[in-house]
């Protein structure tokens, strides 16, 4: 491409980065990004999100946060897909305080959490059985009109079943079916119905 006198743009580089990222070749992702910088091709939101995901896949939270910080310096506003890999990385280490700080930062920059964000946080807070925090997150989802999915309900139901709070588990089970028209799988039926009754 370069030999033909055609300069690649961010779309070209993002496609190359995507291929290497999906194949698990994080070193190649960084090589492509460095070539992008050498050619003075500006990174965009997709580029930054891929870089964040790359560092998080390598469990390199510090580098992922550096990329997030550099977005602001380059007038690029992060979105939920910028934060979600960071939350997954934080969740691996069960750094509850770090998750709280990053969630606050996300809101500070005006980034609206999506269903995936809430699901990651609920799963993380389920480990210390922090029912209050999970209930708060679900309430916030409802207030912000972020639509829960099957994974949201699975986390809520598993948490409350694990704590022996069958009424709450059954309440979310009914909400999932009656209000959201989400069909539960056999395992979820067993979790709620067998244990609760």
UniProtKB/TrEMBL annotation:
Transmembrane regions listed in the UniProt entry: none
Tagged with keyword Repeat: yes
InterPro entries: PPR_rpt, TPR-like_helical_dom_sf
Organism lineage string: Eukaryota, Viridiplantae, Streptophyta, Embryophyta, Tracheophyta
Protein name: Pentacotripeptide-repeat region of PRORP domain-containing protein
Sorted UniProt keywords: Repeat
Pfam families in UniProt: PPR_2 (PF13041), PPR_3 (PF13812)
Domain of life: Eukaryota
Natural source organism: Cucumis sativus
PPR repeat feature ranges: 9-43, 44-78, 79-113, 114-148, 149-183
